[in-house]
Write a structure and sequence with these properties.
Length: 125
């Protein structure tokens, strides 16, 4: 299955498509939309029992939003959902709607802690 890369150039986020690069919006907007430069997830004691999860003593896992987004790749369905959004459309604050949807999808995925079944229950694009 083909995976589509991300690229950040001059603090603007792009997602690869079959036709080239799709501009999502500025990383500053993405960071603001997800709540800041760092995103944190909380794990309960049972979840922390897995050996690969490296949380703080209180069960919190924090990561840099910019680094994480820059290292991600996506499936065709994710990319297609972003492509359907008009690149000139903005929200009430002038933020590109693609960035808003991207940030919503990312926080849904992160909050589901990687469980794609849980993200399917979230709002659709």
């Amino acid at each position: 299955m083909k995976r589509y890369e991300t690229d950040v150039r001059d603090d603007v986020l792009y997602v690869e498509t079959d036709d080239g690069w799709l501009e999502i919006g500025s990383m500053a907007d993405v960071r603001r939309l997800v709540g800041g430069a760092t995103y944190s997830l909380e794990y309960d004691e049972r979840q922390r029992a897995v050996g690969w999860l490296d949380t703080d003593p209180d069960g919190t896992l924090s990561f840099d939003v910019g680094e994480t987004v820059a290292g991600m790749d996506f499936d065709r369905e994710f990319v297609t959902a972003l492509q359907t959004i008009d690149g000139d459309e903005t929200d009430g604050e002038g933020i590109p709607r693609r960035a808003v949807v991207f940030a919503d999808l990312m926080t849904s995925i992160w909050d589901a802690k990687g469980s794609l079944d849980r993200t399917a229950e979230s709002d659709s694009v």
